[in-house]
Write a structure and sequence with these properties.
Blueprint lengths: L6 E4 L2 E4 L5 E2 L8 E2 L12 E6 L2 E14 L9 H10 L6 E13 L2 E5 L14 H7 L9 E4 L4 H4 L16 E5 H7 L4 H4 L5 H12 L5 E4 L3 E4 L2 E5 L8 E7 L2 E5 L9 H4 L11 H18 L2 E3 L8 E7 L2 E6 L2
Length: about 325
Amino acid sequence: MSVSRRSILAGGLSAPLVARGLVTAGAGAGAGLLAARTPARAAEAAHQFSLGDSEITILTDGGLVLPASTLASNVSDEERNAFLTSHGHDAETRASALNIALVRKGDALVLIDTGAGLNFFQDAGLLADSFDAAGLDRDSVTHVVLTHGHPDHVWGVIDDFDESERFPNASYLMGAAEWDFWMNPDFLADNPEELHSFALGAQRNLGAVAEKVERVGADHAVVSGITMIETPGHTPGHMSVLIEDGGQQLLVTGDALTHPSVSFEKPDWQPTTDQNPELAAKTRRTLLDRAASDGLLLVGYHLPWPGVGRAEAKDGAWRYVAEG
């Protein structure tokens, strides 16, 4: 499989990337993952619905394709392949949408994550195009919430060509633990090499807006009715976003849930992209139990477009039911 490569400048250093690829970050993971060609972007640039008086818009940033082996490092190939095949999934590759939530609540326009920019995967980085196609103005975004520091979530903070901010009038919020992890000045010395390009990209993008970033803890209110909650494991300080309006609740899960079958029906399987696999599995179970018990609507960043659905209890685990 051939992959084109790019590099970005971060902190004055040239940071070679597995451009169009993903570096694994789980226990025992050491190899870079090369990306296959991804499927065409979602037929729509935007999917809209209401939650009480709030308007929710899901925007596409494109998509990624990874090896299916990234879905579970703690089961055999035979078990994983049999499960995927029985659920109608490809046993060789794993297609992931990039679904980005935009919430209009009162005078606030809150964007949750910024997409991958143009230096990660060849069919990602479409968020600015989706804003335009949906007739939305990026200058009107008042808040940007960053769930975590992986490339497909923060490398869209700045424009890859002129390094200007994509959302110039927004304030930013990120979990303090997550910020501290990626922005550690000694990151390269303290962490494995497979995370270095991720960190250099995070530092480049986050550093550009550092003075505008509020670093927050659990249960932080972005605005009334929009709350950041801790969902760690995928990364050290990963956070999800709970939206409440009109007696209804929507949870934007970031990467706490990443696959419509594996994440729900096999929550103890350990994706190679989870930096703390055991904690991530515990977080998934807690989140899914709450979602099913409370009837939460979910938006999953990597679930099939537009990523909106619910969790239903099933046989000691859960199943994903797409909605809309």
